[in-house]
Amino acid sequence: MDFVLKVSKLCNMRCEYCYEHKNLESKDQISLSQFDAFFKSLGSWVEERNITERIWLGFHGGEPLLNSLDYLEGVCSLADKYLGEKSINYAFSMQTNLTRYNKDICDFLKRRITTLGVSFDPACSLRKSVSGGDTYDLVLNNIEAALADKLNFGAITVLSAKNLDKIKEIYDFWVSRDVPFRLLPVSATDNETQERIQHLMLKAEDVLMAFRTLGDLWLETDTDLEIDPVAGYFRSAIAYIKGIKVPPVDLSKNERVHYVDTDGKMYNYADHYTDAGYLGDAFKDSLATILDSNQRKASVHLQMKDTKTCETCPFKEACNHSPLIEINPTERVVDEDGEAICWAARPMIDYFVRRLSG
Ligand code: SF4
Known about the structure:
With 358 residues, the chain is an alpha/beta fold. The protein has helices at residues 32-48, 69-82, 103-112, 136-148, 167-176, 191-196, 204-219, 230-242, 287-291, 294-305, 345-356; strands at residues 2-6, 55-60, 90-96, 113-119, 154-159, 181-185, 227-228, 257-260, 265-268, 278-281, 333-334, 340-341. It has a domain at 2-228: Aldolase class I (TIM Barrel, Alpha-Beta Barrel).
């Protein structure tokens, strides 16, 4: 189970495609006393339900490393207090633009962050500073320094109209550095973002072509790096060929990801920042109240209803159905009749099945 903690929306970059664009100047920050209330509630909830699976606490923003290390350490210490002392299985993750990097940051990341994600678009320059300057070389230098420091991280590269023809360069960049990565098609979940990034948007067939190219490169390389999303499609193809049954995701039993916004509002994963995805106030309501509420049941029902499409899919027993619960419209598109269309996972699994079957 993941909690994405929107510690602060403040950011020193203005990436063209950022869905938080209008909030990036805000200095609002989740206070340590608010974290105290949240972790206390989380610890009680996990203990009462005897949950043994790992609880991921993800620092997200904005740029989380703009918050002081003392503050971030303070957040971790509160989690230690309420989760660690109960022997709860928890760990921290962070998604950063890595514009800030030095020895103290490296030490903190190595000591506290189990899973680190770096956002960077090799062979493309969409990630601007506040003043509009190019941050490419700055982040590239920090990536090289982090690798030299033996800091483990994965990466997210956004796929857009600007780098559609650079799949091999992107692949070679990360694989030559032994860094697993996710190629994430640009998407917009609100009207403001939709208008702002029109020039970056891709057609479905372009995304599929990019994924096929990525899958081909991955299969033709001697690497065990996890390259998403193609690695997941590939595993489903293998399961289909071998007749292995994969249990479908059931959010009513195990909702995977929750967003905790800077103001305490908690949302489900697929519909964050919308009324439909709103679950409660993480700083005021107990987690038991939020996660047992009718609001959450309705939200789970809403998320799960798109998996009806899976009933007629040839790969329904080899796939965990999560592509249709995903936030990313690359996976989860609903047509005019309200039917969810699986326009990336299904054709990609089919592609791998055909390729592997000769
Ligand atoms: S429709 Fe898509 S998500 Fe559902 S089982 Fe098929 S490939 Fe998986």
